[in-house]
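Reminder: ligand-aware prediction takes two inputs, not one.
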Amino acid sequence: MTETTIDVGTLRAWLDRGRPVTVLDIRRPDERAEWSIPGSLHVDAYEALKTHDPDALRHVDLPMDVPVVTVCGAGKTSAIAAEQLRGRGVQALSLTGGMKAWSLAWNSAEVPIPRSEARVIQARRTGKGCLSYLIGAHGTATVIDAALDPQVYLEVAQACGWTITQVMDTHVHADHLSRSRMLAALTGATLYLPDQRRVSYPFTAIRDQDVLTIGASGRTQHGRTQGSPLLTGLHTPGHTLESTCYLLDDRVLFTGDTLFLAGVGRPDLDASSEEARARAHALYHSLQRLLDLPPETLILPGHTSTPIAFDHVPLSATLAAVRTQISALQMPEHTFVETILSRIPPTPPNYHRIVELNETGTLPDGDPADLEAGANRCAVA
Ligand SMILES: [Fe+2]
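Here is what comes back for the chain with fe (ii) ion:
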């Protein structure tokens, strides 16, 4: 029997291995502008397909020797598109669950870290742009900002020969459901969160200048364990009050939603306009502290605002490059605050509910993607 559909896991694996495939997005242009599958083609045929117009895809030129995967929002109209294409001899498959299901697709890239015992893998939730990290050393892994199904981290760690022993978040997230608590419970790893009173479940608090050892459990009181990489918490309030960056061996900075490669964290979520202004001031001082780090410090952010290609190229930049890229980082405090507050993007959908679930450490009944769909909106560019 000829297949008529493809699931997200299979399409993800094809793209990851570089298997030839044409992804044809048939959604409305405004929906495509929100987020899309990297490398996909677009045809504005949604309305025509919904009315079963037989000419809806007539002008789309597609290769006959490569499978075509049709994509819509939830996988219904794309099935009509795939059927029409098969009718003219194209090997067409409809993506089951559409972009909603694609929300959990991922890829990864190793981040080269010169002169360090640690290896760092960037695990990317491609549709939403969430970036999480595994830091591996001496057979163990520490996971930062788990945003994907816990099985993904287990799979990546296992492939590297690591056991996950520490899990941590940079802050209480508002745009996606943190999987850190679940990952820690599944692996028996210690769960670390920035010191705060928002979260109602047990965790080990990280405070400013606390140092964790990677490859030996727990925080170090007496300096470096022989050869073990060290991770230092830097409290950087602004995006949220508890936001904390993690500095690996004084040369790699995991910035969460405080500093991105082309923007800074928005200070307004879950805040009155007065609080947002106070947080923007705090963000200014936090960023100045980060800018005092050596210019060659490698920045590894918690998000990107565009879909992440299956290219195994890490999303990172030196602090010097980020400083040049983001004009707000060169502004004096007053101008910075006014500029940030004037450029706040629309609030992410469902963020109140997502914050509430992250504070109680629970996942919703049903499909988490119902709450999380759409691109990330944590940045001010
Ligand atoms: Fe955030």
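The mean pLDDT is 93. The CA atoms of residues 30 and 44 lie 10 Å apart. We will return to this case in the review session.
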